[in-house]
C-alpha cells in the first residue's frame, strides 16, 4: 500500500535522525521569518563549502543549467524573457529554477516529498500545465521523481552519476572524439585526481587502496574491463572532488569503449594483465608512501602504454 505524504516525511526524519540530525520547530515573529531563513541558508552553504571546497557557487551553476535547459513551447509571457542563449524563458522554466533552488537550499534531501501537484500549484500560484512542464524538466535532470497514486507527489531524487557519464560519453562519440584526445584528457584528469588523493588520503583510504590491489591479484586475462577500471574509479572517489570524479569517469568509459583488449588472444591478454597489476601495485605503493612524483610518473607511463590497445 502506498505511503501517505505524512508517512514519507516521518520516514525521512527517521533517516536523518540516524545520521545525527534532529527536527526542530521554531515559533518566531512573522517579521523574523526571512531573517531565520537567510541564516539557515548561509549555514547550509558553509557546510557545503566545507565538504566540497572546489564546488562552483550555486548561483553560478544554476545560471549555467538554466542556459542548457531544453526549451519548451514559448508563451506570450515567455516572449518577453530570454535566457543566456537567447531562447525564450517559459513559466515552466522559471518554476523549474525556483524549485531547483529550493531543493539546493534544503541541502538536497533525497527522499523528501515536496508536495502533491495540488499543493505545489497552490504554493507557487501556477497552472497545472506550467507545473507539469517544470516537473518534466526536474525529472530530466534527475532532480525529482514523481510517485503516482494515493499519497504520491513530487519527491527529491538523487541524481544518477552513471547516467550522466553515459550521456556525455554518447555526445563525445557523436562529436567524433579521437583516441589521442581520450588519452590526453585521461592523463590530465587522472594526474590531477592522483595529486588530491595523496594530499587527502587517510587510513580508511589506504585500506581501500590496499584491498583493491589484493582483489586484483586473483584476476587474469579473462577478467572484464570493469575489473581493471575499479582501481581508477577508486582513486577518482578518493580524490574528493565531484567534478573530477565525473569527468574522470567519462574518459575511463570512453577509453574502455575504444579498447581492443578483448579482441586479442588469451596470451596477449594475460601478458597485458600482468603489466596492469604491476603498474597498479607501484602506483598504490607510491600513493600510500605519499610519494607524489613516483605516483605521477607511474600513472603517466601506464596511460601512455594504453595507446597500443585503443582503436
Automatic annotation (TrEMBL):
Q: Which InterPro entries match?
A: GntR_C, TF_FadR/GntR_C, Tscrpt_reg_HTH_GntR, WH-like_DNA-bd_sf, WH_DNA-bd_sf
Does the entry feature the keyword Transcription regulation, yes or no?
Answer: yes
Which positions, given as ranges, span the membrane?
21-41
Q: Which SUPFAM superfamilies does this chain map to?
A: GntR ligand-binding domain-like, Winged helix' DNA-binding domain
Xref: Gene3D superfamilies: GntR ligand-binding domain-like, Winged helix-like DNA-binding domain superfamily/Winged helix DNA-binding domain
**Domain named HTH gntR-type: residues:** 89-159
Source taxon at top rank: Bacteria
- A GO molecular function held by the record: DNA-binding transcription factor activity
Provide the alphabetized UniProt keywords. Answer: DNA-binding, Membrane, Plasmid, Transcription, Transcription regulation, Transmembrane, Transmembrane helix
Output this protein's name: FCD domain-containing protein
Q: Which organism is it from?
A: Paraburkholderia sprentiae WSM5005
Amino acid at each position: 500500500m502506498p505511503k501517505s505524504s505524512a508517512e514519507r516525511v516521518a520516514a525521512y526524519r527517521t533517516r536523518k535522525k540516524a545520521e545525527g540530525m534532529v527536527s526542530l520547530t521554531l515559533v518566531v515573529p512573522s517579521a523574523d521569518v526571512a531573517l531565520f531563513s537567510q541564516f539557515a541558508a548561509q549555514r547550509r552553504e558553509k557546510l557545503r563549502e566545507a565538504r566540497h571546497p572546489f564546488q562552483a557557487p550555486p548561483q553560478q551553476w544554476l545560471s549555467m543549467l538554466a542556459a542548457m535547459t531544453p526549451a519548451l513551447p514559448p508563451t506570450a509571457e515567455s516572449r518577453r524573457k530570454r535566457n543566456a542563449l537567447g531562447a525564450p524563458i517559459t513559466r515552466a522554466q522559471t518554476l523549474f529554477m525556483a524549485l531547483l533552488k529550493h531543493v539546493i537550499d534544503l541541502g538536497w534531501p533525497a527522499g523528501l516529498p515536496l508536495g502533491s501537484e495540488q499543493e505545489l500549484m497552490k504554493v507557487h500560484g501556477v497552472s497545472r500545465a506550467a507545473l507539469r512542464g517544470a516537473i518534466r524538466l526536474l525529472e530530466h535532470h534527475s532532480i525529482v521523481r514523481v510517485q503516482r497514486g494515493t499519497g504520491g507527489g513530487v519527491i527529491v531524487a538523487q541524481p544518477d552519476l552513471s547516467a550522466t557519464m553515459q550521456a556525455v560519453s554518447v555526445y563525445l562519440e557523436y562529436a567524433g572524439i579521437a583516441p589521442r584526445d581520450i588519452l590526453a584528457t585521461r592523463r590530465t584528469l587522472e594526474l590531477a585526481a592522483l595529486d588530491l588523493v595523496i594530499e587527502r588520503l587517510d587510513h580508511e583510504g589506504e585500506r581501500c587502496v590496499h584491498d583493491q590491489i589484493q582483489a586484483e591479484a586473483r584476476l587474469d586475462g579473462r577478467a572484464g574491463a570493469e575489473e581493471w577500471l575499479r582501481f581508477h574509479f577508486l582513486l577518482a572517489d578518493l580524490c574528493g572532488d565531484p567534478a573530477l570524479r565525473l569527468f574522470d569517469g567519462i574518459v575511463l568509459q570512453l577509453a574502455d569503449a575504444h579498447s581492443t583488449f578483448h579482441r586479442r588472444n588469451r596470451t596477449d591478454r594475460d601478458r597485458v594483465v600482468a603489466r596492469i597489476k604491476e603498474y597498479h601495485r607501484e602506483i598504490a605503493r607510491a600513493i600510500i608512501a605519499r610519494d607524489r612524483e613516483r605516483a605521477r610518473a607511474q600513472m603517466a607511463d601506464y596511460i601512455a602504454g594504453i595507446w597500443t590497445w585503443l582503436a
